[in-house]
Amino acid sequence: MALPFAVLISGRGSNMLALEQATRDGRIDGRIVSVLSDRADAAGLASAGNLGLPTAVVAPAPGEDRAAYGARLAARIAESGVKLVVLAGFMRILDGGFVRAFEGRLLNIHPSLLPAHRGLHTHRRAIEAGDRWHGCTVHFVTEELDAGPRVIQGRLAVRPAEGEDALSARVQRLEHIVYPRAVGWFAAGRLALRDGVAILDGRAAGPEVVEEAS
To answer: How far is CA 33 from the centre of its chain?
Structure first.
């Protein structure tokens, strides 16, 4: 039975679109049953709607704290009966209660080779640090920001004199490869979180590394 999953976005939703394409061409045995955003102006909502995907806006109320917002968002997601929640450019830190509600069923993609460059502005920081390698990481979400068990990474060599925008675009192309792969593993029952460890095919995930195609 196809895995029902929700995708949370805050912007264009390019990873959401990559995931939807993967469900359509059989790389993910699943279906997106809900696309939610914390912003009514997120461009990805229109893109999802054009594809016939159910969408909703769950914006924080004035003065609402993180825990209250997380509880309200979790309740809305639970209504759709999802088995997995996928963060795809969702630019809001989720509280511990939300994370615990979906423990082992909550994935995120971060634009760096974690544990390097947790947080924001990762491409700029990689360039400023003189990093030779950069990329993206799919990981299970835990209560510590960008610190959950890693599943798969996309890796590329930083080019001499490369600008932030160019590097970001290259990383995003890798994201569209590795995120559908990780969600496909989860949908197939190959990927799980056990005792704080990402398990792939019965063994601790490496994480697997996908190199940029030359």
So the answer is: 16
